[in-house]
Structures are given as C-alpha cells and as structure tokens.
C-alpha cells in the first residue's frame, strides 16, 4: 500500500507551510523554485504553492497570473510505494494560516450558501513520468484557518500514471460529476476519501457538495464540518515537468448572498490577570450560516477601540500589557461571508503592578511569526522610577515545546519554562523614564500558535 496525497504526512512535513514557507505575495508571474515558495494570483483570489514536501530534488513552477501554473523543472525519482515528492497546487481558502482573498472560507457545509459552491479546472499532462492529477478538498470540525484539518480530506483524481494508488483501500465505485469513480478510504489521523476516475480527463466542473454528499452517505464526513480550502494540483513521484494547471476557478454557482450578520457576542469576562496579560472569555454568537471567528478589540484611556487579535474560539489571552494600567475590551463575531456582528458590551481590566522592585516594566511585541517560529522584538524595558537603576532582569514564561534559538541586546537563560533575560554591559544603566530593548527568536511545535507571556521586570 502506498501513502499518497497532498498532505499525507501533513502534520510533520507540511507544518512549514506557514510563515517562512510562504513567500511574500506578488502580482508578477514568477517562477517559483524554492521548496516551499508561494505567491498569489488574480489579486490574491488564489494562492499558488510549489510545495516540495516529500523530497529534496529540484522543482520549479512558472506561475500564470490568469490562474494556473506549469511545472518547468522536476528532477524527482521516488519509489512508487511511498509518498510523492511534492504537491504543486493552486487553491482558494485557508491553508496553514495563508488565506486567499474573497473565498468566504471556512464555510460550514450545512449553510445555505454551501450548495452553490463550484470549482473547475483544466489541466495539461506530459507523456512521461509517474504522477497523479488531483483535487484536495479539506474539511475540519471547526472553522480552522491554520494547522492540520482533522475532519475529512476529499481527493478527486482526474488522472494518474504508473502503479500509484490513494491511501487506504478501495471500498466501492460510484457515478458522480459526469464520470465513474473508484472510491478509496483510509484514515491517517483524519478521514481520506479518494475518488479515482476510471476514464482519465483533463478538465472537470462540479459542485463541492457532489463529492461531500457521497462521503457523508458513507459515514466519513459530517454536514456540520467546515470547508477550509479547495486545492488542485499534482503529486509527482518520477519527473513531473510539463504538468500544468491551465485554469482554475472556485466560487458560488448562483446561490443567494449572505448579508445577515451574527448575533452580538456575550460580554467578555476577564480572568488570570497579571501585570502584563489577561484572559478573556465570552458567550458565543449565532448566525444563519455559521460563525467563523471573533475579533478582540481593546482601548485604553479615552482612545478608540481597535482590533488587537482574532480567534476561532470564545476565549483570547492578551499579553504584553503595561502593569497598573486599565484596559477596556469588546468582541465581535464574523461569519463566512465577512459579515460583522455588533460589538459586545465592554469589560474593564486593570493589570497588576509590575513585579520585582517596582518602577520597572517590560512590554513585548511580536514582530513576526510563522507556522513553527516567531521573533519577539522589541521587548522594551523602562525605568518608571525616579532614580537611576543599574542593571535589570526580565523574566517570562516560554510555552511548552518552544526553544529559543537566538537573542540580542540581552543575555538569556532558560530554566524549565522560565526564561530570564539580563542586561548586557552596555544597556544596564537606565535613568528615570529611560528605556532600552532586546529581542529573541524561537521555534515552536508544528500547529502551535502560542508566544511567550507573563513578562515581568526587576
């Protein structure tokens, strides 16, 4: 049995597909040769990924801004009883925290708008190599925009060569979308349902619900789950140059537009408030289609509320706050069509006084983060006292599984989950109201979105 599909080993091998894996969006028509390079096309409507996740051999794709790409170089030579070398693809929706524009995904499959979702693709195949040409359609029990989906992965194989086959075993045959398909099923931590066309085709146009309904009828998917992304591309084992997506589309096939916003969320409650952070929880919103997430808004003093974070759950931890400071929070809900609920009533939170001798604060800013790492910079250390201080120490909590890989303008030591940062010889003396800063970089487990918290200064 060979293990084949876009993310067969997604949990380990594709966790890099966020942050550093994704290149900055571009509106030119680039040639992508880096293993995990990506770009957007049609002004962000779709994302194209090179995605050489299963090999170290060279692969390049020439991106077509009209909505496709061509594999121009592929030096793969993998055994056909194992995983493929890559999955160059174009997609709509959200995949490992990179989302296309205007897809309205994630979308719950029980929504009225879901039934009208359609996709179409046209492909070109070379006369050599070992590969499959397949859709990869992902569902999750939650409106996930990052990390590994855990519901169902529906693969639609338009064509394939050689002795390769989908994950699992064949369980039946079905007529759908103008063709006859072998149905395969396997579970690798989530359900993989593959439809292999018995007579190859180079193009197809179908509603997403066509294949999902069949999967649901077999007990392998649920109507309550959310469609997160629709991807079309190729899995090459040997060669692959000449494989091309000529055109790709995804969108509504004429269903009614959802203009109804979610209901107002419950008033937030604050708990576990420290000198630099607090955790908020609130009552869920309801929606005629489905709530996809919440925005958290914050204000201090007389300033206006502004968005400081987003979450798919009904809780959020805000960190990097200033000790002895009063904040106000509100939340609002979002649905798959982008409708926003009214903002909730506000909760007022006052952080505790700064630790370690008073008159010293440490406020951290997350400069950038990706799927398995982040950079915290600056961590601003301020002498809030009336006298000059000689030397400072900042402590904070490092989440489980995280590892600091570098730092600057401070000396860092780690004991368990506690990190201690001490001044260097050049930035230890701070006059009244004077500040200095340091920074660090760290790695984290795949799919973990946490950053350090609980910064205190002495």
UniProtKB/TrEMBL annotation:
<keyword id="KW-0119">Carbohydrate metabolism</keyword>
<dbReference type="InterPro" id="IPR008965">
    <property type="entry name" value="CBM2/CBM3_carb-bd_dom_sf"/>
</dbReference>
<keyword id="KW-0326">Glycosidase</keyword>
<feature type="compositionally biased region" description="Low complexity">
    <location>
        <begin position="257"/>
        <end position="276"/>
    </location>
</feature>
<dbReference type="Pfam" id="PF00041">
    <property type="entry name" value="fn3"/>
</dbReference>
<dbReference type="InterPro" id="IPR013319">
    <property type="entry name" value="GH11/12"/>
</dbReference>
<dbReference type="InterPro" id="IPR003961">
    <property type="entry name" value="FN3_dom"/>
</dbReference>
<dbReference type="InterPro" id="IPR012291">
    <property type="entry name" value="CBM2_carb-bd_dom_sf"/>
</dbReference>
<feature type="region of interest" description="Disordered">
    <location>
        <begin position="423"/>
        <end position="458"/>
    </location>
</feature>
<dbReference type="Pfam" id="PF00553">
    <property type="entry name" value="CBM_2"/>
</dbReference>
<comment type="similarity">
    <text>Belongs to the glycosyl hydrolase 12 (cellulase H) family.</text>
</comment>
<dbReference type="InterPro" id="IPR001919">
    <property type="entry name" value="CBD2"/>
</dbReference>
<feature type="signal peptide">
    <location>
        <begin position="1"/>
        <end position="28"/>
    </location>
</feature>
<dbReference type="GO" id="GO:0008810">
    <property type="term" value="F:cellulase activity"/>
</dbReference>
<feature type="domain" description="CBM2">
    <location>
        <begin position="353"/>
        <end position="458"/>
    </location>
</feature>
<keyword id="KW-0624">Polysaccharide degradation</keyword>
<dbReference type="InterPro" id="IPR036116">
    <property type="entry name" value="FN3_sf"/>
</dbReference>
<feature type="domain" description="Fibronectin type-III">
    <location>
        <begin position="264"/>
        <end position="354"/>
    </location>
</feature>
<keyword id="KW-0378">Hydrolase</keyword>
<protein>
    <submittedName>
        <fullName>Endoglucanase E-4</fullName>
        <ecNumber>3.2.1.4</ecNumber>
    </submittedName>
</protein>
<dbReference type="InterPro" id="IPR013783">
    <property type="entry name" value="Ig-like_fold"/>
</dbReference>
<feature type="region of interest" description="Disordered">
    <location>
        <begin position="253"/>
        <end position="276"/>
    </location>
</feature>
<dbReference type="InterPro" id="IPR002594">
    <property type="entry name" value="GH12"/>
</dbReference>
<dbReference type="InterPro" id="IPR013320">
    <property type="entry name" value="ConA-like_dom_sf"/>
</dbReference>
<keyword id="KW-0732">Signal</keyword>
<dbReference type="Pfam" id="PF01670">
    <property type="entry name" value="Glyco_hydro_12"/>
</dbReference>
